[in-house]
Every structure is written in C-alpha cells, then in structure tokens.
C-alpha cells in the first residue's frame, strides 16, 4: 500500500499550508509551509512513524499564547480530517 497525500490550510497560525502523508493510519511524512522552521521540523520528525490517532490525542487542544489554537493543534485537526477522508475512500 502506498502513502496518501493530504494538504490543508491551517487557520490562526503562521504556516500557510500543512502537507501530510498517511499510510495505514500511520504518519509517513509531515511538512509545514511557513512558520517557525526549527520548531516545525522538530514536530514533523517527532510524529513521523506514529499512529495518527495517537498524535491527535496528544496534540489536539494545544494553544499558542492567547491564541485558541497552535501549529500542533492545527496538525491534529488536519490529521483528523485526513483520517475521515481516507475512511471514505
């Protein structure tokens, strides 16, 4: 089975796009376009190979300062949408 690619436009954060690849419910690759490069590279490396549900449960609801969301929260939301879309295929 090959990885399926998804793209999302996050809201309320600096990155303008999140690109991710899922294969059998596991994160194959994540890339943020824009934002705090070093921190986002770290997040991407940490979640690579993890199950999408595990990442969602750990990152959903994380806030950045006074903002109601954050880059990790937006990644969790993107993963949740990707899983729903993948189930429909």
UniProtKB/TrEMBL annotation:
It catalyses: a 2'-deoxyribonucleoside 5'-diphosphate + [thioredoxin]-disulfide + H2O = a ribonucleoside 5'-diphosphate + [thioredoxin]-dithiol. Keywords: DNA synthesis, Nucleotide-binding. It holds the Pfam family TSCPD. It is an enzyme of class 1 (oxidoreductase). The keyword Nucleotide-binding applies. Residues 10-82 form the TSCPD domain. GO terms for biological process: DNA biosynthetic process. Its EC number is 1.17.4.1. GO terms for molecular function: nucleotide binding; ribonucleoside-diphosphate reductase activity, thioredoxin disulfide as acceptor. Belongs to the ribonucleoside diphosphate reductase class-2 family. This is ribonucleoside-diphosphate reductase. It comes from Anaerolinea thermophila (strain DSM 14523 / JCM 11388 / NBRC 100420 / UNI-1).
């Amino acid at each position: 089975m090959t990885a399926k690619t998804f793209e999302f436009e996050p809201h309320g954060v600096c990155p303008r796009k999140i690109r991710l690849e899922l294969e059998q419910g596991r994160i194959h690759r994540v890339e943020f376009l824009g934002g705090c490069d070093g921190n986002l590279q770290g997040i991407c490396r940490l979640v690579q190979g993890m199950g999408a549900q595990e990442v969602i449960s750990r990152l959903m609801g994380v806030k950045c300062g006074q903002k109601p969301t954050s880059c990790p929260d937006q990644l969790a939301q993107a993963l949740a949408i990707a899983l729903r879309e993948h189930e429909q295929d």
